[in-house]
Amino acid sequence: MKITVLGCGALGQLWLSALYQQGHDVQGWVRIPQPFVAVNVISPEGVAFNRNLPTNDPQHLAESELLLVTLKAWQVSGAVSALMPMLNDNCTLLLLHNGMGTIDELPASRLSILQGATTHAARHEGNAILHVAAGITHIGPVSARGAASSHIADVLHDALPDVAWHNNIYPSLWNKLAVNCVINPLTAVHNCTNGDLLGFGSEIEQICSEVAEVMAIEGYQTHADSLLSYVYQVIDTTAANHSSMLQDIRTQRHTEIDYITGYVIRRGRKHGLTLPVNSRLFDTVKRKENGYERFGS
Ligand code: KPL
Predict the structure, then answer these.
(1) How far, in Å, is the centroid of ligand 1 from the Cα of 281?
(2) How many CA atoms lie within 13 A of 259 on its CB side?
(3) Rg (alpha carbons) of the chain, rounded to whole number
(4) Is pTM beyond 0.90 here?
(5) How much distance in Å is there from the Cα of 90 to the middle of ligand 1?
(6) Would you tell me how many other CB atoms lie within 10 Å of the CB of residue 2?
(7) Are 242 and 193 in contact (CB under 8 A)?
(8) ipTM above 0.95 for this complex
(9) How confident is the model at residue 297 (pLDDT cuts 50, 70, 90)?
(10) What is the number of the ligand 1 atom nearest to the C-alpha of 241?
(11) Phi-psi category of 30—alpha, beta or left, where left has phi over 0 and alpha has psi -120 to 50?
């Protein structure tokens, strides 16, 4: 299959290497065009994949059957809107990022659009991408035509298992959102690893109960206790991780807070709910971002 991967960070390189090794015709797409992307991924078993793969070929993009978007949430609408006119009608677009709300920022389109949430963990280690832990990627439709793209789950599963298809992806997206609402801002504010959050039990409980309240009013069958046990499970399996938001704050980059905590607050507000604990965390992370944006980062 002809595939373009938009964004060649840790997750992008992981998919590029996996799809290439599965025999797909892949290219990367990067903001600043360059002749190739050096893909250098080390598997959880220590096996290295090291290869230069092509980038930014408009013909390849126009013929792609899948555009896999691995950008940060705040980069998605600008980058994807710019590429949409170059895609063919049969191209499936898959958004893989933390948080929710990017689909609402894209122009109306007849494309098949999917969104996913993954628990694969990968991070930069020198010049390489370390695939720290294998995980599961849940994907499903977020546009009317998306339902016709379930075959994409098989393609992705063969390259980087496990991949699960959901006719209704939203419960999975919301569960991952709850995890990100807890782990990302708390680790960024307390400057700690995911595992260190075990010392913040009451804040974790309050965040989960606020997210559960919004989910319930949006029609999802959930309970704060089930979100809480999922959150603790992820804290346990990613105990040594520095969350992506903590890394963003440490390197003075834009965080995904608007699409994580900000999304839940916006959804809550629509129903007249105020979420005091999430709102306080949102403001604290924003203050941290504003502190360094003045210096031009
Ligand atoms: O998705 C993550 C992130 O860091 O963005 C978690 C699941 C919290 C793992 O660190």
Answers:
(1) 16
(2) 23
(3) 19
(4) yes
(5) 32
(6) 17
(7) yes
(8) yes
(9) very low
(10) 10
(11) beta
